[in-house]
Amino acid sequence: MGSAGRPRVRYALAMPLLSLAIGLSAMVAASPARADFRVCNATQNLVGVGIGYRAKAGWITEGWWHIEGSSCKTLIEGPLSSRFYYLYAEDAERGGRWDGPINMCVAEKEFKIAGVTDCVARGFQRAGFQEYDTGEQASWMVQLTDESATEGAPAAPGTNSQ
User: 156: Cβ–Cβ under 8 A, 6 or more apart, which residues?
Assistant: First the structure.
């Protein structure tokens, strides 16, 4: 058998592979878009992150999420229910921080605190959070970079992560 049979063999092998690729593409396209609030740590250091938001019952702050260097974590899973979220982060190794002008409560250890007033009187610490206007997007991501991990520097910009 000369070269006359080779195109048929290639065709016979290529068709199942092409069908598989099209099927996988359809499955990926049909899967729902992920909606959440994520923070990515673009530094090489461990970072501790706290988030604040307005819930039905009032203001809430939560923390600490520990995010290793060059990795991301989801702080809020599912579609975002608020337009504005507030973020505070500290570099656990170098002591820098990503902060802002909005005062909210934090604690030394893991926390979920209702209310943002009288932090010290209630046994908490006060920290300056940066506001992020998500524009009512279902998903948002903030990337922390080395340039923002300094005393008083503004927090990193946020983006719609879809």
Answer: 98, 142, 143, 144, 145, 148
Query: What pLDDT tens digit does each residue of the chain (162 aa) get?
Result: 555 555 544 444 433 333 333 343 333 333 345 689 999 999 999 999 999 999 999 999 999 999 999 999 999 999 998 999 999 999 998 889 999 999 999 999 999 999 999 999 999 999 999 999 999 889 999 999 987 544 444 445 555 554
- Phi first, then psi: give them for residue 142, nearest 5 degrees: -115, 135
Cis previous bond, 64, omega within 30: yes
CATH architecture of the domain formed by 36-159: Sandwich (2.60)
Residue ranges covered by each domain of the chain: 1-31, 36-159
